Amino acid sequence: MEALSAVFGILCIAGVAAFLFWLALWDVRQHWLRGQMKTWPAAHGRVLKSEAREYRAGRGGQRIYWLVGITYCFTTAGGGYFGGESEFRIETESEAEDLAHGLKDAEVEVRYRPDDPDTSLVCLPDGRIGSHPFRAGIS
């Protein structure tokens, strides 16, 4: 029984380590994309859907912040039509609700990778740059 308990403990630690490693890679990718996007072409995009939702982080969900998730579309210089999803982290519920409401059907600047327009980021007029969501879709 002790051996089984030890194996379970090791698997739990390995799972947490794997998740933290994935999280670190995701963060590195976000920073890389933001650096690269400065050289990417810009396109006019339109927000199709926006939604504010609560997100709990930290031990026991003690840290609460809000995410505004958007779904958008844009046309490239070559005439291709693409869409994407992006998230913006907001500190308060009222700010998140205001941003989500203000982005409905809004025109936004989209920076896209010329060789892969499916890789794109939204730039808001106030300078905020969206992040790719952890998961696909806005629920």
Major pleated sheet? 5 strands, antiparallel
What distance lies between the first and last C-alpha atoms, to the nearest angstrom? 42 Å
Order of helices and strands: HEEEHEE
Shape field:
extended
CATH architecture of the largest domain: Beta Barrel
Helix amount: 25-40%
Radius of gyration computed on alpha carbons: 18 Å
Spatial strand order of the main sheet = 3-2-1-4-5
Highest-level CATH class of the largest domain: Mainly Beta
DSSP strand count: 5
Give average pLDDT, whole number: 80
Number of separate helices: 2
Strand content: 35-45%
Which structural class do the helices and strands define? alpha+beta
CATH topology of the largest domain: OB fold (Dihydrolipoamide Acetyltransferase, E2P)
Characterize the structure shown.
It is a single chain. By secondary structure, this protein is of the alpha+beta class. The chain has two domains: 1-39; 41-139, OB fold (Dihydrolipoamide Acetyltransferase, E2P) (Beta Barrel), CATH 2.40.50. The protein has helices spanning 2-36, 93-103; strands at 42-57, 63-75, 81-90, 107-113, 116-123. Strands 3-2-1-4-5 form a five-stranded antiparallel beta sheet, covered by helices on one side. The longest helix has 35 residues, at 2-36.
